[in-house]
Specification:
Blueprint: E1 5-6, H1 32-38, H2 42-61, H3 67-83, H4 89-96, H5 100-112, H6 114-128, H7 130-153, H8 170-174, H9 198-213, H10 224-235, H11 241-257, E2 270-271
Antiparallel strand pairs: 1-2
Helix pairs in contact: 2-7, 4-10, 5-10, 6-7, 6-9, 7-9, 7-11, 9-10, 9-11
Length: about 300
């Protein structure tokens, strides 16, 4: 009788699985050690994220100052939305303007949530889900690079700067505002980079990333963040509906290019124990004694 042995290797990127007691499965080591092994160096990541942000920030400045082209493109987008029978941005803004407090909350959300929420999202993934952090950082980089290219090739004035839209610049009227009163003289931000809306694109990626990286049944509530962001960017007249649709389309392409990490799975090592040989009984008269079968040691090459 030959002893049977089933052996598999540990999953890629996981520590080796020590042998356990006979007949038992060895439990894979999961936790802080595994996260630390998958976590990229902190200093390198800080430099990389800051560098990508600065490249994007300075790149947007290259598209600044194209006032005439940006307004012509704004008329095209506005007309395209009416052709597609999309709801007017004024419907959302009118709801916000029912009270000064509500519109100020919307302005604050637009000004104060965008960058901090994205940074906290990346920080949490880095500490708790490092493999998902690398994936999310790459997706955001691809999305932002594509958005920068579109900003440079298609400067677009937001609806608050389009006279035909008849919308209120809520940030300038009610505050707080992150933009200068005169867009052409704004040296801190490019106000002619409405399409795509990275406010919406980053918010949508935050929700998708947390849904993929977590297992709570409440994780789908993260979709409220991009939904609120969409209502805010449209209601404050900073973006058109098509700006959000363009951001969603670019994010879809980025997600198709950068695939999420596969769940870490450990293949278990099992060792079977040979059945004990039956005790020898009395040998009938005239018969030849039967030699007991001795199992070969586990791991030997005999019989293979």
């Amino acid at each position: 009788m030959e002893a049977r042995e089933s052996r598999t290797e540990a999953a890629a990127g996981e520590p080796g699985i020590p042998p356990g007691p006979p007949g038992a499965a060895a439990a894979p080591p999961v936790g802080a050690a595994e996260r630390a092994a998958a976590r990229p160096p902190l200093v390198r990541e800080l430099l990389l994220v800051v560098g990508l942000f600065l490249v994007y920030k300075f790149g947007r400045q290259l598209a600044n100052g194209h006032t005439g082209e940006a307004l012509r493109n704004a008329h095209r987008v506005w007309d395209a939305e009416r052709t597609l029978r999309l709801p007017g941005e004024g419907l959302v803004q009118n709801a916000l303007l029912h009270g000064d407090g509500l519109v100020q909350v919307a302005n604050t959300y637009y000004a104060a949530v965008h960058f901090p929420a994205t940074l906290l999202f990346l920080l949490w993934l880095y500490l708790r889900r490092p493999r998902h952090y690398v994936w999310a950082r790459r997706v955001l980089a691809v999305l932002t690079a594509a958005a920068l290219a579109l900003h440079l090739g298609f400067p677009l004035a937001p609806p608050r700067l389009l006279p035909a839209a008849h919308l209120v610049d809520t940030a300038q009227v009610y505050g707080p505002s992150v933009y200068a009163a005169k867009p052409a003289a704004d040296t801190m931000a490019n106000q002619f980079a409405a399409m795509p809306s990275l406010h919406f694109g980053w918010a949508l990626m935050l929700a998708i990333g947390l849904i993929v990286a977590t297992g709570s049944r409440w994780r789908w509530l993260w979709l409220l963040h991009p939904l609120v962001t969409l209502l805010v960017i449209v209601g404050t007249a900073n973006h058109y509906w098509l700006d959000a649709l363009a951001a969603a389309a670019l994010l879809g392409i980025a997600l198709a290019v950068v695939r999420p990490p596969r769940p870490a799975r450990s293949r278990v090592v099992r060792r079977s124990v040979p059945a004990p040989a039956p005790a020898p009984g009395p040998v009938p008269v005239g018969s030849k004694p039967v030699e007991p079968v001795v199992p070969e040691p586990v791991g030997s090459g005999a019989g293979r």
